[in-house]
What we know:
Blueprint: H1 12-15, H2 24-37, H3 40-66, H4 85-116, H5 129-154, H6 157-160, H7 183-200, H8 204-222, H9 242-251, H10 262-267, H11 271-308
Helix pairs in contact: 3-4, 3-8, 5-7, 5-8
One zinc ion (ZN) binds next to helix 9.
Amino acid sequence: MDNLTDHLFHPQQVLDFLPENPIKEPFANAWIYMTNNYTKFQIATWGSLIVHELIYFAACMPGIIFQFIPFMRRFKIQANRPETFEGQWKCFKLIMFNHFFIQLPLIAGTYVFTEYFNIPYGWEEMPPWYDLALRVFGCAVIEDTWHYFLHGALHDKRIYKYIHKVHHNFQSPFGMTAEYAHPAETLILGMGFFWGILLLANHMVLLWAWVCVRLFETIDVHSGYDIPYLNPFHLIPFYGGSRFHDFHHFNFTGNYSSTFTWWDKIFGTDRQFKEYYAKQESLKSAQNSNKTQHNSKKTQQNGKKTKSQ
Length: 309
Ligand SMILES: [Zn+2]
Ligand SMILES: [Zn+2]
């Protein structure tokens, strides 16, 4: 069975101008080795589990290290709420439960899905990088939309305490808390991850590319650190980032999107976030002007002293 977009991205004349993928050769060798040595079932199930675990903890690693480097504290968004060992251990235990008892059974469905929709695994059918990038972006837009509305619904007073309260256990999040959630939430919000695959998958590689991007993104926004200039995600227009989602954990209300800021802008649910940062900015500039006044007074006084001497 073909899916909706199998024939969408082939305006070859335009695409020929785009550069080749620089890591194409080593990637090709690794991919061909994998498909020659493992069955589709092994790749879809164990391969996907390994990709998920490796990327999850690799993406968490910088944040885990930063807590031991005093220099990095200046980038911590809620500096008054540092990570604790107890908090991280509690988080790790629930994450492991979710990964192996909720997410692994879902991952096991990957093989059935790819067989049913005839999703290829071979190197010959590998899409070019720009096709893959566009599809991953499409997946992110779909997931973000699902997340905005369902996350907002999980905040409804009548159901909040049963499900979403678990994720809000950490008022100041750190990378690992990205998937710290009630199993029902893992299923409800996790569905947003799969809609994009259902609509846009044209190769097994899309599933892994999308899972990598989604994990790096959600761990980035939960990291609790905002390091300027170094984060490539900030090159994407409308990317929310860590300050945006950190505020959701800190304030509890508003900023319901996972990745982009447009839904919160459209529905005005980013109002408190904007007001908070506007206030912070005006406080900062007031402090700076006070400092400047104080310094110029000191200089005047010193000047007078020198004259009288
Ligand atoms: Zn929430
Ligand atoms: Zn969160």
